[in-house]
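Hi everyone,

Forwarding the result from last night's run.
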Amino acid sequence: MDEIFGIPTQALLGQLLLGLVNGSFYAMLSLGLAVIFGLLNIVNFAHGALYMVGAYVAWMALEYFGLDYWWALVLAPLVVGAFGILIERLLLRWLYQLDHLYGLLLTFGVALILEGTYRYFFGVSGQPYPVPDALMGATDLGFMVLPNYRAWVVAASLAVCLVTWYVIERTRLGAYLRAATENPRLVQAFGVNVPLLVTLTYGFGVALAAFAGVLAAPIIQVTPLMGSNLIIIVFAVVVIGGMGSILGSIFTGLGLGVIEGLTKVFYPEASSTVVFVIMAIVLLLRPAGLFGREK
């Protein structure tokens, strides 16, 4: 079949793949936001900037130290996660008893500082990052040609998202984390170091953003604006899925990426607003989000 609904099959499948790749980034970034909000009650507006920092760590590791993509996948989450721990220990820990607005304003300020710093040192022009040799080329599936790197991005994102969901929802550590959000004093009475759990949770959440940044680096140019261009959509994904919902972030991120890709085929003019239209509809019908719990 050469056409589907009057659209060339190759073009339609290509946009579906692009939507799935974008959805993978939405899922991973919104997952990190959901983990941080669900367990710390902090709206982390610095998430997009830390995603950008992860991409720059990968680029600098290659440019200055000769460390390739596979090293960067390990190094960037560790570096950004450690930086996130510093942010939590030095800044965020003083805001937990205050209104959510204070955390949002603080992390927004951190995002502006990071973005301004990278713009000062690297400018606004993008830096290219090569696709690793092992993932170059494409595979002919018969009905479409699938770029190997894009397939890897989808597979790696899904694997990380599902492992994160399993750890939080199905393990003892996840039970401690969830219990610490409900009644931290009781959990601490059982000998669990709740402040350390909170710190490591924030570090892990921003490490997910850095991992996504490394995955994105070979697809888009590394630029100080790459995080700010994405974070608003990611916040919309979190709201639609349900604030703090792990599974909601994963499914909603992937689904909205696909819907956005299809919109570019059938009605390109609406592709930049379709996510926000869906968010408005969901908030009207179900204010807690598709997977959120009504209070």
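Residues 9-40 form the longest helix (32 residues).

Cheers,
N.
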